[in-house]
Amino acid sequence: MTDDAVNALRAAQERYATERAKRIRPDGLDQYVLLDGQHEQFDRDPYADPDFARESIVEDTDAVILGGGFSGMLTAVELGRRGVESYRMIEKGGDFGGTWYWNRYPGCRCDVESYIYMPFLEETGYMPTEKYATAPEIFEHCQRIGTHFGLYEHALFQTEIETAAWSDDEHRWLITTTRGDQLRARFFVAAGGLLHKAKLPGIPGVGSYTGRTFHTARWDYAFTGGSPTEPMTELADKRVGIVGTGATAVQLVPQLARDAAEVFVFQRTPATVAVRRNGPTDEQWFRSLQSGWQTERMRNFTAAVSGEQPSPCLVDDGWIDLMWDNLQQRVDSPEEQKELDLLDFEVMQRLRDRVDAMVDDPATAEKLKPWYGKHCKRVCFHDEYLPAFNEPNVHLVDTDGAGVAEVGTGGPIVDGSVYDVDLLIFASGFEVTTPVVRRLGFDPVGRGGVTLSERWADGAHTLHGNQTAGFPNLLFVAIAQASSSSNFVHFITEATAHVAWIVASSLEDDVVAIEPEPEAEDEWLQFLWRKAAEGGDYMATCTPSYFNGEQGMSEQLARSVVYPGNVSGYADHLARWRAEGGTTGVRRLHASQEE
């Protein structure tokens, strides 16, 4: 390592620390507000039939699945594959899709290749049109999955759960909904997904703004004109502000630049924006793929972006370019650590150099450069975002890490200046690491009248991230104490298969109640903490993001640790548990024991 390289690395690390310090907030995750009361407008569904009505349902069922996104759909399909046909799906939206029901903003598409992101391509026979499919295509595929696997007959749309309580006498979950339904379920699967609850920053004065405002997950085409595939004609004479510069904004800003009179992009932290190699699907290649190809390709991608460097590498894209080396691993000497730090710096410097190459104004380019490590925030891939700032109608309003301080009647206020806009868009993403009860929207009641929020007052208590003591037959599809991935669908695929196995095997063995031992939960958490410690303190140096709970420090966040290996390692751990009978660390009550 040359002296110049050492000096450049040291200077970058000092800049990382300076930029990180600007963004640390004492309120952590609490900086985001619930979408109720004065913020209720941000949660209204603009896509569903406002006059929808149906008869209430009263029934017994083997399972109730909360969620109609990928998590819920995959759970239902896996249950069907295991012979469980008696289940209900409860979904707030008006159709299947989850994230892809809500995200209909212009320019939206997946950032992981569609061949491993869109589930059940083999089963449905569908070939994605592009390597990175658009949101309308993915939403349509969700509907295709619903039709192909007969899920619609099980679904209760435009419905939310009001109460869910475990009955020890009946060995059932007693569930009521906003449509007056009364469901008695042997199992309750909370598959609300990872990206379904819109996140809104609690900026003072938002309620006083007199223009039109909405979250990107509740896009109002009645105001903007156009559609996900057509220009927004009503913005031609409008001044538009957008708060946020993450994955959503990276896709949206070029569309606003094309259609709006003026665009003001309010930035707290610059995004990492790498090259996107999109293109049409090669039909000959796609039709040549052999049975089982999607699972193999999914696992191969996970290995490649986790530093395992598989050979061959089946997915050749920007993710591989950036994540081929795992730089969060623990090493034995300062020199080895310095080598890893230098590799990280070199990757990020290439991306900062890309900003200089694509943005004409040097001052704007400097503000758009990301100063943090490559594993700190989700990488974005786009070829039009950075050049959009060369357009005369696009203005970057950099807040130097502070974020928008206030919103007045006319628009955002930054450094005392008011930016009057006709439309204020919040591109602030979804809640990922907030408490699960907050994301569920109700508080499950377990044995003895104890609520989940009480049981988890100090954070998550689970076995494998999907079962919790005191709440028999309640199963989660969530990342806390489970796993995560650049390709969320890989995690969802493995997690839902495991949950469905627990349900089906319990029904087959006439198990009326299953839950983990508290000691097993503690052992699982200690295992996660030990393994996480082996990964070093990389995240502690990162800028705040949903990856690290906005750098908030609390026992709740500490207990939300995820499996420190990749999804395949987590899945293998679950597979071993199932192979051993699925009884280790759990209490199982059979019907015969109740007689």
Task: Give structural notes.
The protein contains 20 helices and 21 strands. It is an alpha/beta fold. It folds into 2 domains: 178 residues, 3-Layer(bba) Sandwich (FAD/NAD(P)-binding domain); 301 residues, FAD/NAD(P)-binding domain (3-Layer(bba) Sandwich), CATH 3.50.50.60. The strands form 6 sheets. Strands 2, 3, 4, 5, 6, 7 and 19 form a 7-stranded mixed β-sheet that branches. The protein has a 5-stranded parallel β-sheet with strand order 9-18-10-11-14, with helices on one face. Helix 2 packs parallel to helix 17 and helix 17 packs parallel to helix 20. The longest helix is centred in the middle third of the chain and has 25 residues. The radius of gyration is 24 Å and the shape is globular. It starts with a helix and ends in a 5-residue tail after the last strand.
Reconstruct the topology from this structure.
Elements: H1 3-23, E1 32-33, E2 58-66, H2 70-81, E3 87-90, H3 99-102, H4 114-117, H5 121-124, H6 135-148, E4 155-156, E5 161-167, E6 172-177, E7 182-190, E8 200-201, E9 212-215, H7 221-224, E10 239-243, H8 247-259, E11 262-267, E12 273-274, H9 283-288, H10 293-304, H11 318-323, H12 334-358, H13 362-367, E13 380-381, H14 385-388, E14 394-398, E15 406-407, E16 412-414, E17 417-418, E18 423-426, H15 436-440, H16 452-455, E19 474-476, H17 488-508, E20 511-516, H18 518-533, H19 555-558, H20 567-579, E21 586-590
Parallel strand pairs: 2-3, 2-7, 3-4, 7-19, 9-18, 10-11, 10-18, 11-14, 12-13
Antiparallel strand pairs: 1-8, 5-6, 6-7, 15-16, 16-17, 20-21
Helix pairs in contact: 2-17, 17-20
